[in-house]
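haha ok so turns out i had the wrong file open the whole time. this is the CORRECT one, sorry everyone. sequence first:
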Amino acid sequence: MKKFSWRGLSIIIFICVTAFYLAPLAIPNLPEWWAKNKLKLGLDLKGGMQILLEVDTSELSVADARGAVDQNIKIIRERIDQFGVAEPSIQKLGENRIMVQLPGVSDYQAAENLIKQTAMLEFKIVAQPEEAKRVLDTIDANINANLSFFPALEALDKQDKAILADTLASADSLGNPAGSGVFSSLIRPGEMDYEVQWDNVDIIQQLLADSLFQRAVPAGWQISLDRANTETTRADRALHVLSSAVELSGADLSKAKVEYGSSTSTDPRIANKPYISIEMKREGARKFEQVTADNVGKRLAIVLDGIVYSAPNIQERIAGGRAQITGRFTSSEANELAIVLNTGNLIAPITPASTSIIGATLGADSIRSGSTAGIIGLVIVMFFMLIYYKVGGLVSDFALVFNVGFILAMLTAFGATLTLPGIAGIILTIGMAVDANVLVFERIREELDAGKTPRSACDAGYKRATITVWDANVTTLIAAIVLYQFGTGPIRGFAVTLAIGIIGSMFCALVFVRSIFDTFIITGTKKTLSI
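then structure:
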């Protein structure tokens, strides 16, 4: 009975695993469970976008500021994972910067909006008509009394100032409270709230962003616009007067998901349209039930980052902690909002410091250049080994091809991403992969020159060279580990491919090539060895 060979089993496993993970690169129409194991390409090869984010921690305590960036990174990663980006790169730069790389992204604006949205979800009561009128009258009186102190009005461009002048034409003068007032002249009564004509929207937005305007709003109240219609830029906006008291917040939210209203629904807000269905936590459901019970007949606004998404009328006490966020959503917008709500609020606001778009054409050029360099390097090394070591070099070349395939297979198996520095690591590995074989072959030559038979020379050569091979490769592997531990981005990509290549080259030299020698080359009483 033939003795069991662990070496043979390990080679079979090596070949099968490599073939399994490389197959999706070469064979189309594989089963889905198999085809999904495909090598991922990085931003520099596939194209996509890179965003440098600045985290504003000025409003946080020193203790909270330390963890704000790390927590924001966690939330951003959760959002991107749900957005469906394969292998994003998210890393901290310095004290308050985050670098986000999104390979393969085509909808750049949606991705940027998803990342930077703070997602402050609040539920607030809408003011009754008479209350809203008193709030607006107070705002007008405060603005008219201090008109020269409002930089938002002074900073208007010529077109906006002309619009403002037209809307104030019916007033006696800018300082006359008996006139229509600066703020009231920009809006008009609507069906349920107030409306802002599309040509006045910019002025209103500048006023709402002005800290002095916020001081003109009576305590306990706030002014908010509804969500803009993304289908047109020339759409009127509703303006709401809200109680500033937060009845419920995003902390009370359990989950949010996108649903689609039936085409037969009698509710025009959801009929054949996407909307967000939200479910409260246990304590949130209790508070929601109490709020709806205390405010029957009033309206409850659902406010996200200061924008009113919907403000339904409370018909009765609502138990169960379920609600809907409706609006003029597209399917993608509804999905983005659900993702943001599910991943929670950013600890500190972020602003994009820079955004770079890398086109697919540049990625294709990088792949072509990297592949050409790799193939040329591989051919030159294989040719040298074949000429210098003859049959031994041919065996080494055969193992070298398997080693390159092993690197790509392991990158696929571990879900790693191949980048341009990663290709550089593969090219370097091609040169290093034959180093172990060179050490072994030179030792075998020495033993043959000493008059030993091919088999005994091969045994002695491997025995003497193995320690040297281990020393040389382990020290390089340690360097790769250090690069991965302390490096970022491209450096890590280089380190990963280098480390996998070292492991593969050691296996090929000490196990794969040795097995081929023992099985096919050193047979019987052969007196010579082509090496």
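The domain at 121-345 is CATH 3.30.1360.200 (Gyrase A; domain 2).
again sry for the mixup
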